[in-house]
Specification:
Length: 256
């Protein structure tokens, strides 16, 4: 059994593990999560978060939370984004190297490797192929997982990739994405403003504590994953952040 007293620190060119206060909570269960952070929404002529405007999560994005507020961190994320846009082949080759090193790093420490490729982006990695296979196919021993606002991503057949859908009430048009996610049985992540005012049920589903750790692939199915607002999200009033017991679900709002 691993404990939080043990410090792990993996730094790749594109991914990093050990520097996130939430993901290290998974160390207790023998997991180590590496995350790749890029510049969210529109950057370098490409939109890495295609549903950001629809869900109005731009202001509340975790891109500026914690170390993300540092200029040096933002420059690093911009560098990765530029590389991804201008040299996709080289970028994917480096990602392949990073994942290989990370897998070895975890094996030497008897840890189970986990990776979030979309720390602050929403890229359909399942559509980017290396020698005819996705990155998930190349690394079957790694548990990949992400949050997404694209409800119709074709990932159900990928055994080592788990997706949690991100909820928003900011735009009635986003209700279509919410409904698709519910119909597909995806777990729904909801950002609440106050962690002390989180309801027991939401959208008719039981609510679980998503801030206990970041291991979303371990969550019980058909659940709402409660997260609480951090960084600039605390002041977000778009409808992306939900005000505890005072919420009105998007479904009810449309039916009114």
């Amino acid at each position: 059994m691993k404990t939080l007293d043990i410090k792990y620190n993996f730094i790749g060119n594109l991914i990093r593990a050990g520097g996130d206060a939430k993901t290290v909570k998974g160390n207790d269960d023998g997991y180590l999560t590496a995350i790749m952070y890029m510049t969210p929404w529109k950057s370098f002529g490409v939109n890495l978060c295609p549903s950001a405007e629809l869900a109005k999560c731009i202001v509340g994005c975790l891109n500026t939370a914690g170390r993300g507020a540092m200029n040096s961190v933002q420059k690093g994320r911009a560098r990765k984004t530029e590389w991804y846009v201008k040299d996709r082949e080289g970028f994917m080759a480096q990602l392949f190297k990073d994942l290989t090193r990370f897998e070895t790093y975890c094996a030497k420490r008897d840890l189970k490797p986990c990776v979030r490729l979309n720390g602050t982006s929403d890229i359909r990695w399942e559509t980017i192929l290396i020698d005819g296979q996705s990155i998930f196919d190349h690394f079957p021993a790694i548990q990949f997982y992400d949050y997404t606002k694209i409800a119709n991503r074709k990932c159900d057949h990928i055994a080592n990739y788990d997706l949690t859908f991100s909820y928003s009430e900011a735009n009635p048009a986003y209700a279509k994405q919410v409904n698709i996610a519910l119909e597909r049985g995806l777990n729904i992540a909801v950002v609440f403003r106050d962690k002390d005012q989180i309801p027991e049920t939401f959208l008719g589903l039981p609510v679980i504590n998503g801030d206990k750790n970041d291991m979303r692939f371990q969550d019980p199915k058909q659940s709402v994953v409660a997260l609480y607002a951090k960084g600039k999200a605390r002041k977000d009033t778009s409808g992306f952040v939900i005000d505890g017991f005072a919420w009105t679900t998007l479904t009810n709002r449309l039916a009114a």
